[in-house]
Amino acid sequence: MSPRLVPASADAAGRRPDVPLRITVDGVPYNGAAGQTIAGVLLAAGRRSWRNGPSGAPRGVFCGIGACFDCLVTVNGDRDVRACRRRAADGDAVTTQSRAADSADPAGTDGGER
Amino acid sequence: MTRHVVVVGAGPAGLGAAAAALRAGARVTLVDSAEHPGGQYHRMLPDAYRAARPGRLHHGWDAFDRLRRRVTGHPRCAWWPETSVWMLERSAPGEPRPPRVHVLRGPADGSGRERRVLEPEALVLAPGAHDRALPFPGWDLPGVFTAGAAQALAKGERVVVGDRVVVGGAGPFLLPVAASLLEAGASVAEVLEAGTAAAVARGWGRRPWELASQAGKAGELAGYAALLARHRVPYRTGRAVIEARGDGRVEEAVTARLRADWSVVPGTERTVTADAVCVTHGFSPQLELPVAAGCALRAGATPEEPFVEVDADQLTTAPGVYAAGEVTGIAGAPAARAEGLLAGWLAGGGAPSAPELRRLRARRDQGRAFAARLAAAHPVGAAWPGWLRPGTVVCRCEETDYAALCRAADDAAGGAAARAVKLGTRAGLGPCQARICGPTVAELLRRRAAGAPGRPAEGLAPATPHHRPVAQPIRLGELAEPPRESE
Predict the structure, then answer these.
(1) Where is this region: Disordered (chain A) (predicted)?
(2) How confident is the model at residue B461 (pLDDT cuts 50, 70, 90)?
(3) Are B311 and B200 found together in one domain?
(4) Does B277 lie in the same domain as B138?
(5) Mind listing the pLDDT tens digit for each residue in B236-261?
(6) B417 & B316 share domain
(7) Residues B145 and B277 in one domain
(8) pLDDT tens-digit profile of B337-380?
(9) Does the beta-carbon distance from A1 to B163 stay under 8 Å?
(10) Which chain A residues are Cβ-neighbours of B185 within 8 angstroms?
(11) % of chain A with per-residue pLDDT over 70
(12) In a mutagenesis test of the A interface, which of B43, B83, B134, B158 is the best target, namely the one with the most A β-carbons within 10 Å?
């Protein structure tokens, strides 16, 4: 049971076949379709969370329209990008962020998202 | 010289405003953070999907498609997609001009976006709203989404958030969200309206003539109801999701029957297997830009849920600043469009006596009546905090829990409670800048103060969670670059 992309062949909106793209998240490759947001690529790959709150609690998409900032990621070195609003581009190197004190995220514990 | 109107937001209200201002002869700059016009209501698919039949996912697509082509292709319209308004700079006191509009153009939250400053003769603010989601135990688990997120993902990029979904909260928006999920192939376990059947029927049943003007809306809702019935999805009133459970993600939802005040009827709890829970308990208008422009707010259903105050011409209390759409009241797309058309025409210098305005004003007034009616039919019940446990996270960003908030509220002197609680618990100080928890924290503090003996509620500082002088994040590098010349 997981989130997914409606297959183009079965899409009532008459989508043409997907144009594939590939991004990496912490070095791990994820396949997506051109037009998806970074959040969309991750969700459709079955990944529901990619950020950690101060206690380490997992976070992913909540509001989906750029208001809650739960889904922040680092994209090609730019911190604090809302994954629900940023279109994935082929080759994007995404790294996850954490605000937990024991995290390996160098900017996560202090100032990174303030 | 041609009058320059800046319209912020290209949803139903903003697009209507741009069209009417163009018709009035003005030059228009229409800005929106998305790549396409439409807002959340007509959220378009990305170009890369090359969809042959995008209208299948929308109501009123053909009219919208004509309108957006006419506006964005108009020789006097500058259409600026992927543009964030990060600051409104008010003019000097005594200078009756709208604020200067500072924007960033480029991919969402990117670095090196282009800074521009606009100096309009009139400004129309139509930024819209986002879901208001009340906290409950487990609402911070991955797999709990706002209803708006589920719809945006389904309509905007054809991603469905789960296989078996529970949709819950309050208001008619539950229906299109469930419909979007069904259309995209999810199974919807149930749709739960927290309002009791009697309250909903009372709200919708009386003064039916007010619904006549919203005939399109009523037909749309009837269509959703039929779709739910076809898929055998139960729609239950007086019931809510009061907990989400799972190991690192949602695996089940706990629902319970509610009384009219949204207190839980003990013994009615049921556990439902689900891999996604979608909630909406109303809408929060995006007020940071109106507040930055100096617009007065008017009280909504509660002190924590205000709207922008506008007059009969959609003019706010700030000179040259008009507001339209959900920031003035929640009434749906047709009402937002009517407000936008009126605001745009007048902002563009159109004659206030133009004959077609009479019809428009009437539609707008009907929209306002509809908004009042919706608010009355789907109020947030006062006893919802009974769902909370001491450890329930209230501020998602800072993970401030209910017990910490109560402790801080009780420790603080009445008048300074809001500020002291914020500084003491960090609630509302995280990345979202209180967009999600602001109204909730303010409401919890108000209830706490009112319930505490010897602590007068009137001593409480007015809740102002909408003050965000930097309206959208800007990077230091971008700030360091001088903006391109104003226009």
Answers:
(1) 87-114
(2) very low
(3) no
(4) yes
(5) 999 999 999 999 999 999 999 999 99
(6) no
(7) yes
(8) 999 999 999 999 999 999 989 999 999 999 898 888 888 889 99
(9) yes
(10) 6, 10
(11) 91
(12) B158
Number of domains within chain B: 3
Determine the distance in angstroms separating the CA of B372 from the nearest CA of chain A, rounded to an integer: 25
Residue pairs between chains A and B whose CB atoms are closer than 8 Å:
185
- Which residues span the domain enclosing B246? 133-281
Mean pLDDT of the residues in chain B? 92
- The domain boundary residue, chosen from B249, B281, B313: B281
* Cα dist from B113 to A33, A68, B48, B190, whole Å: 25, 22, 22, 44
The pLDDT confidence band at residue B456, using thresholds 50, 70 and 90, is: very low
**Interchain CB contact of A80 with B (< 8 Å):** yes
> Taking CB atoms and an 8 Å cutoff, what residues of chain B touch A6?
158-160, 184-185
- Looking only at the bridges linking them, the beta strands covering B122-125 and B321-323 are parallel
Same domain, B94 and B151: no
Q: Which of A60, A67, A80 sits opposite B142 (nearest CB)?
A: A60
For chain A, the C-alpha Rg in angstroms (whole number) is 15
Portion of chain A with pLDDT greater than 90, in percent: 86
- CATH label of the domain that carries residue B245: 3.50.50.60
Mark yes or no for CB contact A36/B159 under 8 Å. yes
* Chain A: closest CA distance from residue B463 (Å): 19
B46 and B120 fall within a common domain: yes
Q: Identify the band that residue B228 occupies on the pLDDT scale cut at 50, 70 and 90.
A: very high
* A63–chain B Cβ distance below 8 A for any pair: yes
Residue B486 predicted with pLDDT over 90: no
Using CA atoms, how far apart are residues B51 and B38, in angstroms rounded to an integer? 16
Cβ burial of B171 (10 Å; 0-12, 13-18, 19+) is buried
Residue showing tokens 């007086």: B238
Q: Which one of 3.40.630.30, 1.10.443.10, 3.10.20.440, 3.30.428.10 gives the CATH number of domain A19-98?
A: 3.10.20.440
The answer to whether residue B186 sits within a structural domain is yes
d(CA A75, CA A53): 19
Last residue of a domain, one of B281, B297, B314: B281
First to last CA, chain A: 35
Q: Judge if B143 and B66 occupy the same domain.
A: no
Out of B107, B109, B162, name the one closest to residue A3 (CB).
B162
> Closest residue of B to A82, CA-based?
B109
What's residue B15's pLDDT?
Answer: 98
- Please state, in angstroms and rounded to a whole number, the distance separating the CA atoms of residues B240 and A51: 28
Residue B222 lies in a domain: yes
| Residue B188, token pair as written in the block | 């919807």
| Within a domain: B471 | no
3-state secondary structure of B213: coil
Cα distance between residue B351 and residue B329, in whole Å = 25
pLDDT of residue B413: 59
pLDDT, average across residues B164-171: 97
ipTM for the assembly: 0.94
Cα four-point dihedral sign B202, B205, B211, B215? positive
In chain A, which residues have their Cβ closer than 8 Å to the Cβ of B108?
66, 81-82, 85-87
Q: How many angstroms separate the CA of residue B145 from the nearest CA in chain A?
A: 5
pLDDT score at B17: 98
